[in-house]
Amino acid sequence: MSRASALLVFVLAAPLCAVAQDPPNRDYQPPFKGEAVFDPRPEKRAAATAEAERKAAEEAAAIEAATVKTEPAPAASPPEPAASPAPEAAPMPIAEGYLPPTPEALAAAEAALRPPPRTPVENPRAYGYLVGDLLLQKVQLSVDGKPVELAELPGRDRYGVWIARRATTVERHADGSRWLVMEYQIVNASKDVDVIALPKLKLRTTTPDLFIDVPDWPITVGAITSAQISNQGALRALQPDRPAPVIDTDAIRHPLKLVLAALVAVLLAWLAWWRWREWQASERLPFARARRELSHLAPDSEAAWRCLHQAFDATAGRVVQPATLALLFRAAPHLEAARDAIERFYAESAARFFGGRDGSSLSPNALCAQLRAIEKQHEA
How far apart are CA 28 and CA 41, in angstroms? Predict the structure, then answer.
């Protein structure tokens, strides 16, 4: 049994040893998905490549043999002689009594076959009108794109029991086109929804035998209220007006009071500031102080003239006389605007106090008010 076992082992191990002695192919790479699987041994790959080249050469030879060879084109044959012209057809016989059409008849037939001239028309909407509604229909003053003039504008007119034309005007649009605007009004009430139509017009132009055709335009007119009213429950012929919605004023009453209080405070503060400013001016500005004092004196008294003299002296910083008025205008250049009135005041003052003349046409109060206005414009 041992010899038989050893013989069996030898027989089985011999092929395995032969396979192990065959070196593996180190250049072999596993195929990718979808790639054809080739024999990993180099000699088998070379044989497969040679077989593929042989088949490709056989296919090329078969294609070359099946290709049709083109032959050169044969020489052109001489042209054939031209055919002789056909004899003219004999004129058709004219029936007895036939008369050719006149040019006027041909023109009339051509005018009848010619399409009618086209004019753009802008019509109002065709539904939802009640009695008293106004409609505007616009017609462009052009025929086949060429501008035309109307011989006269359509006037006021009544068309049946439904429509009346109120006014007609001509408007010019931004693109330069001119349009005839006709205003219509529904003048009758309908008991139900009725279909009426704006009138068909034929407007005469200044061009002879040329008219603008305006087709009729159907519209619907409805009733204001239903003809049959059921006097049951709350369904009455006349319904009361709906009450106006009530607005809650509590949310805005308090902020409104605050705003009004703030406005009154601002006005009082402005008034107080203005009064304080005027009081300050009456204390430190000469003519403001003189105006306050003149309000307590007689208009044309000597005290009023002396009060105005004191205002001039305070402005110049010295006693001012007619000979020294230049010093006053140098100290207060803004008084140059009233130079003539000031010189007249000093002239009449000299005549009053030193010339024995009592009357004067100059009012110290008016002059003081004029000088106070000039002083106010230049006060700091």
Answer: 8
Q: Which backbone phi and psi does 347 adopt, to 5 degrees?
A: -65, -45
- CB atoms under 10 Å from CB of 220, counted, come to 14
Q: Any idea which residue has 């002396």 for tokens?
A: 306
pTM of the model: 0.35
pLDDT tens figures, 82-109 = 555 555 555 556 556 566 778 877 777 7
**b/e per residue 94-125 (b: at least 16 CB within 10 A):** eeeeeeeeeeeeeeeeeeeeeeeeebebebbe
Q: Please check the confidence at residue 70 and state whether its pLDDT lies above 50.
A: no
Mean pLDDT rounded to a whole number for the chain: 78
Please say whether the beta carbons of 162 and 171 come within 8 A.
no
